[in-house]
Amino acid sequence: MRILLDKFSKAFGAVSVIEDMTLEIGDGEMLALLGPSGCGKSTTLFAICGIHKVSGGRILFGDRDVTSLPPQERNVGVVFQSYALYPHMTVRENIAFPLRIAGKSSVEVARQVDEMAQLVHIEPLLDRRPAELSGGQQQRVALARALVRRPHVLLLDEPLANLDAKLRLEMRSEIRRIQLETGITAVLVTHDQVEAMSMCDRIAIMDAGRIVQIATPTEMYNDPHTAFVAGFLGNPPIAFLRGVVSGDAIVVPQSDVRLPKPNGARNLAEGTRVSVGIRPENFGPAGDVPVRGRISFVETQGRENLYDLMLADGSVLRSIQPVRSDIAVGDEVEWSVASDRIFMFDDKGERI
Amino acid sequence: MDASRDKTGLPPASGGAGRAPARRRLGLLDSSRGLGVLLLLPALVLVILFFLMPVVLTGVFAFTNMSTATGISGGAHQVSPGSLRVLTERYGMGELAERLGQPTYLVDERGLAALEETGIAPGIVASLRRGHLDESFASRREFERAIRALPDRPDTRTVKRISDAFSRSLANARFTDAGALVAAAEAIDPDLTPEEKDALASATYTGWSWTTDNFRRLTSSRDTTRVFFNTLFFVAMTLVFFNIGYAMFLAIATHYMPERPAGIFRIVWFLPRISPVVIYVLLWKWVAWDTGFLNAVLSDFGVRPRNWMLDSATQAWFFVIMINGFVGASMGMLIFASAIKAIPETHFHAASVDGAYRWQQVRHIILPQLKWPILFVTCYQTLSLLTSIEQTLLATDGGPGGATEVWSLWIYHTALNNYAGNLQYGYGAAMALVLVVIGIVLSLIYLRLFNYNALITRPRIEL
Fold it and tell me: Which residues are in the ABC transporter domain (chain A) (predicted)?
């Protein structure tokens, strides 16, 4: 079902968290609300499910205005960060809870619980209590409980935050599989860009209560609208250089780095300050603009190494390269930037 | 400077010798065990004096017939109409009782000496000694006839004085021990059998003695059944309606309230607990009595003024349960409220989006997770209600007509305060002992039920 937030605002007392936010989530789409802590992404999620009352604007499920409906009547499934499984109920009772509350017959309840257990692969655990489950298993139960009512929308609030790295990887693909299998519209709230990029059709990146950019993961990675977006996406993260427009080039002061002006920067006046974003994979032995510096840090990642290169002015560039053993900390190197892949931002962080 | 002088000034040998005896003097206190006992001693003394001793003494008193009449120290032997009746009825020695009960006059040296001191004519004394020494008379009339027949012919007043001096009746005489009593009795009746002596000694004893009669009396008394069911009713009603029911209502109501009003609300319901009992109960009495608040309001509607608290047994119960209930509800409220607070808020969010409205959340989320707090409050309050006395004592004092007499109050009325004036410590102690035993048994059951260790470990809610 399509979800539409129409000029949605939310304030807690005098503190305005979100103002005039408009967001449309297509039917069957999985959208990530990505942003740092306190950006309003969980608030948005709680407004969609009805736990928070909105201060302004409308929320539509399909064509139905649910703005004033209590959560009980919205038919949404929510997976909470802590899973919020009821500790006094078995797994079976937890999954059956929404159906029992809805007054379904016990035969119907049993059938649907079994179906859900099959979907999320927890059939052998049905008679355990939440305390007897691992984190990943609890996660699956929470998913099953959220989905058992066949909700209009599935909301996931940082669902992977409490799992260890290996489980996180596994549950990432599991949640995506289940979402695709059920064809449900889903909203994932996360602060982890890897999760957002790997699980979702589109990402809405939020900062300070505003949506900064909505795009598919690839689009967003390759064409960030702001320095904030560029900095948020990508691992290892992008590095920024402070530059000044000088003739037809961007010069990094107190260093010999001269980057060609990109198309968007043609009209910039001489001396304008800009910042230049260079992703680690676009800086290395291959490239067209040479940069000299000293290796300040080497991080081994197994297949690849991450190098920090300190420039003459003290700023740091990152480079990720296949493992090589000929470079150590303190070495002077000259590597190159692929100048067609750099992003330029003005001093407000807007893309040029 | 100082430190170095200290070091050099004290020869090592004398230092070592000086320290060794000091350590030996401390002796036991050098070990943590000895010191621990010493530090615990004041607490131990208090525990023994004020916690253990009352229970032990209750147990001891329960097996005596102590009362105001017997006193709590030892008694004496006294031949009273009562003890003579005991002699007749319990020992079947009616004849002996009759003999001892009758006044007896014995002319002996002791009497003569006493007579001499009263300044009576020596001639009379001399003629009495001469004519009647060691003679005894069974009645006053017989003895006085003999006195009148003396050569001096004393007047009537003198005759009375003389006969009084020789009165050797055992009636109302007090003896500090059984030997003196028996000696006196033998003076009247020299042919007492050993059985008669024993019977006499125990029948006339005024002090307390060991007995199991209290328990026999307790099991056969009809009051016991009545008071027992009163107590059961009182505990059950107060517990169900107030200590659990009303406390739960308050806890849940305040849970769904905004923080501030909820806090104020809790404090208001805590007032009965922290206000002085006497004032709290007096306020209730003032509400209920015939010139009180209730009547002031109701008289406008033409209702006859009455004491609502003591008007009927039902009304008395109503007030007793309310007065006790509002005091007890605050504890349950606090415990339940904090237990509800311990449920993560996301559980309520989850229940809401799962479709559960408030009453369904209460039914499916709150109540099942409050199993242990409910059990705990039930157990704790049962024990405290069983021994609760002050509110009921001040409100109805067990009235009207003993309708609200509960066990603890009954103990008080029996042992410490009753109309007849004879306080039956022994009987009251036996009642108290029953209560103590019930309390201990219940506590043991509860501790087992709870698996006490499980109560003090952290709840197993994993995130």
Answer: 3-233
